[in-house]
């Protein structure tokens, strides 16, 4: 079994700001986003228009108090997916000529960060982690962000994904050893679940968002899973 990335194993994001509070906020939000989506994301913080840049990066540019960019600086921006961060509506209006992918306010919550990253999908898809599993004489491949839960079925597994079900000729125990935790947790001997796919915990079971299916949790794991789910959801609230 392989956990693999697409052609390049890492996506990159730059945070350009002189504001330490904004830097820390964006770094935190992008880190928990990358954890949920299972993306290898390199995060770099620096002052605007200082240091080297990598074409194909996602740039979070603090527009408040920013001097008018020079032509050479604008050329750098054109090679990246630009997300303008500003509390000033006039800055946002001026930034339209830079062709930004998205806008954010300095205190944007998780949902806003998620939407901004969706607008930049082509710039971070290279960092997606994938499952590559055997199935009889064939193979199945799926990005981890689309994997909601996994159920053991003898020496095979049933993969419940956002696009439907798939089967793999691979035991659950070995699969569990290769998946990142979080976001994945083994809630009982026969089930793995992605916390981002869970709506709530009720009556000793995890209720999935998509179809309200109940995934049983072993008694030994109830407290651990409950605490993990509460923490997971708390840091993603706006």
Describe this structure in words.
The protein is an alpha/beta fold and 238 residues long. The chain folds into 2 domains: 8-126, 3-Layer(aba) Sandwich (Rossmann fold), CATH 3.40.50; 129-234, OB fold (Dihydrolipoamide Acetyltransferase, E2P) (Beta Barrel). Helices cover 27% and strands 34% of the residues. The chain is built from 7 helices and 16 strands. The chain has helices at 20-37, 71-78, 89-95, 110-119, 121-124, 172-176, 222-234, and strands spanning 2-5, 11-16, 41-46, 58-62, 81-85, 102-104, 129-135, 138-143, 147-153, 156-161, 164-168, 184-188, 191-194, 198-202, 205-208, 214-216. It starts with a strand and ends with a helix. The model is unreliable at 3-8 (pLDDT under 50).
What portion of residues belong to β-strands?
25-35%
CATH topology of the largest domain: Rossmann fold
User: Are there runs of 5+ residues with pLDDT below 50, and where?
Assistant: 3-8
Span from first to last CA? 37 Å
Form type: elongated
Give the helix proportion (percent range).
25-40%
What is the topology, as strand order, of the major beta sheet? 3-2-4-5-6
- Radius of gyration over all CA atoms, rounded: 20 Å
Q: What's the number of extended β-strand segments?
A: 16
- Tally of DSSP helical segments: 7
